[in-house]
Protein 1
Amino acid sequence: MTSSSYTPAVQGQGFKATVQRLGGYLAAMVMPNIGAFIAWGLITALFIPTGWIPNKTLAELVGPMISILLPVLIGYTGGRLVHGQRGAVVGAVATMGLVVGADVPMILGAMIIGPLTAYLLKLFDGLVEDKIRPGFEMLVDNFSAGIIGAAMAIGGVYGIGPVVEWLTKQAGSGVDWLVDKDLLPLTSVLVEPAKVLFLNNAINHGVFGPLGIAEAADKGKSILFMIESNPGPGLGLLLAFMVFGPRALRPSTPAAIIVQFLGGIHEIYFPYVLMKPKLILAVIAGGAAGVGTFMITGAGLVATPSPGSIFAYLAVTPKGDYFGVILGIVIAAAVSFAVASALLGFGRGEPPADAVGPDEERVVRPDGQPVVDPDNAPSKPAKQEV
């Protein structure tokens, strides 16, 4: 499995391409394990003391799953991406060092130590390739994996773990400061433009996901899960295109709305923004309005809604937060629709439907201007010979 399974193929070698590759790699580590994240979220929503069906015995699953199972799965998957099954094994072993040596969920740390340990094993395997005497291959393979995995686990306890824990706590303090100062909606100014450059996976799974998991483990829910994944801004933008956008594009928007809002595939609306870059203001406004609504209502989710569809949102919404969550999505969609409609001029620049004859085909560019089809263009009268 490669990162391209979850993100578009990246071309070029520039800074943006590098960041996109990093985002794709993070997605490739997280997305195969989303089912485990959802399972943890459902168990949390159902069985914790404030859940739908409080159960003290079943609530004991919550802690070990978030602190041990999920980081180990991430480390295992990251190692597998680098060096196959051998990399997966040492990645999981090394991740256990982080789990033991930290007090916060080590999702971010697992994304680092799993691939790193697998890469070290890959280097070793390259050095000894074709140099092992026949009959000793299994012995060398097993002991090399065991030694490197154990060494990295110890390094995780005393080195990588404390550093990642400190970084996580500092980032969490920064988020708390934004919340205390009522500035969290301003994150949309950075998040929404980055999303349309296909950096959504890097933002969601690499930044807000780990921070949200740490906050949810402490408080039972987190608003950070909803900053990037809110389907409202994209829905509002697509609705504006359907009503006021270029006529050639309007028939494509209903299907895009289904894929984006119900299916949770936000990438479907990115080309619409890239086609008319000024519409980035619409999704920024919608995202900020949604985050502000979540803050005012105190709403949060218990796990990452992935994919970011309305169904995934409702599945990981804790008891008592449905009103705030749904209201935030609706307001985000409404604000995005209003701003996008204004930026599109409420369709005033679009020709009326009856401007095109029944036997004529009108081709329209993305900017709304007609394109002359040379095959269907009216023929010019021939010059009269004198």
Note: The two ends are 74 Å apart (CA to CA).
Protein 2
Amino acid sequence: MKKSVQFQLSFMMFLEFFIWGGWFVTLGSFLGNNLNATGAETAMAFSTQSWGAIIAPFVIGLIADKFFNAERILGILHLIGAVLMYQMSQASEFALFYPYVLGYMIAYMPTLALVNSVSFNQMNDPAKQFPVVRVFGTIGWILAGLIISFVFKWDSIENIGNGMLSNTFIMVAIASAMLGIFSFLLPKTPPQGKGEKTSISDILGLDALKLLKDRNFLVFFLSSVLICIPLAFYYQNISPFLTEYQVENSTAWASIGQMSEVGFMLLLPFFFKKYGFKKTILFGMLAWAIRYLLFAFGDAGDLFFMLVMGIALHGICYDFFFVSGQIYTDSKAGDKVKSAAQGLITLATYGVGMLVGFWVAGKIVDKNVIVDGAHSWQDVWLFPALFAIGVFVFFAILFKNEKVEYKA
């Protein structure tokens, strides 16, 4: 792969995740402070990610793989996204905001697969070259948070109170327009399945359902869906939680989670080879419970270090469970249904699991409103902590240990 192409792909990845990190982290605080949204309304807004994940396979399977170059669809979707993102910045009430965020996520979620398609199409050694390109996405997400906190200070307690978080949508609209235009300059990625028939079963990965006959895979599948409920609590509540605790530069603090993700990704092969798949997954599940207990009993004063530790555990929580799960799914599926199996897991977790998770999180947050719209955060965080422990016990008892080779 030429260096010029590597630069193009890296810049594409940088903007792709700069866009996501530039508004999604602070969304909860924006909704509560700018639009006076309830927990249930906040859950509806975050659930658009899940609806986008459910609809995305149809966009890719029925359009991108059949008729148009991936880079062109990527460009069009991001240009549409730029318009919708600007409209989100102008919304003054939740009823006006929701249709725009729903439309945006339906446009954005397919781009996550499209940037991968564009990248892989240019690589002669993806296992070696893709991580080098993909890491720029994580850098983009982190930089977005640092810019919000330290350059513009939109997430300072004073500026949040003044409604300045709406500016994050304008920043992201500009970045989205940039990526939309830049996408048309990317190397050509023609449709891979032109002329081939594609069924709904293919798109949804239903051919992989036969894997559920394997008891271990069924236990893993159910655990994956269930663990997305605690995951949804984190995405939906971390910004309002830190803001309510009067934590300055909360977006920058939240970006520690992405920094740790990079570090623990490097440690994953060691854990996987030393402790095996089951123990690695259990480490990940246990980390979810520990992080929420840290959130529940920490504070913005002397115990602030507990909040930081909870955020930093994101690398273990995400990498040790979800990345290990992708490796396990790959090993169980075999070549024929490998893509279908990964598609099914993605649909079940980011689609169904997160959809339920956001709904549950909204209910729990509304149930724990106290005076003046503040929340009993200890009670909010104890629910996903206990839930994660339940999933841990379920997996530990029912999943029979088996050898899985680490392949990355």
Note: DSSP finds 16 helices and no strands in the chain.
